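Hi support team,

I submitted a single chain yesterday and got back a structure, but I'm not sure I'm reading the token output correctly. Could someone confirm the output below corresponds to the sequence I sent? I've pasted both exactly as they appear in my results page.

Thanks,
R.
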Amino acid sequence: MEGPLSVVLKMSHPTEMMISVVIGIGFGFVLERAGFGRADRLAANFYGRDFRVLRVMFTAIVTAMLGLYVLDLLAILPLSSIGILDTYLLPQIVGGLLLGVGFIVGGYCPGTSVVAAVSGKIDAVLFMLGIAFGSAVFTFGYDTLAPLANAGARGRVLLHDFFHVNSGIVVFAVSLFAVGAFWAVGRIEQLVRARTSARASEHQDEEATEARGAAGLAREGSLP
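Hi R., thanks for writing in. Yes, this is the structure output for that exact sequence:
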């Protein structure tokens, strides 16, 4: 038996779309409950204060990777049957950098901006308008941007094909990297919080000192 599930169960296109909408609503609800509808929490990932974005994304990547690896081994869902976009090295690097800058400045990625907009956040609506504007610029300017958009075409590329190793080695390496990343960001959060607490304590001490000085001057001024 081969996947995807819609093929195995012989779902009609309308049924697939309805299920996709339900799954999308559920996914958005979970993101909102996890705090992914707030720009300050998302941007905190880039300031070392809160790495929940990295943890959630790495968890999702590793979970999906392990699931696909097992399904491929059992010949239930061969990787060859999964649609994967072709690799265009240069434009994907440029696009990744632009997305990262937008994430830092705006505090959202495309998916979380939708979650936040549905929650009623105006900044997310403006962010989505920016996405629409950028998409329109790319669409109408495609003839000019085509050389960049098609640069570095490599076709369908998977990591184990790229490095010419067994897929199990890549699965193990990515899982190990994720564990190491979780440990590293935990240490970074501790250091940043400790530094923030120290600065807050110093600020409170300065305010207390100023208050005592002001009180002393007031007492001196009240003396005959």
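A quick pointer for reading it: Residues 159 and 170 are 7 Å apart (CA to CA). Let us know if anything else looks off.

Best,
Support desk
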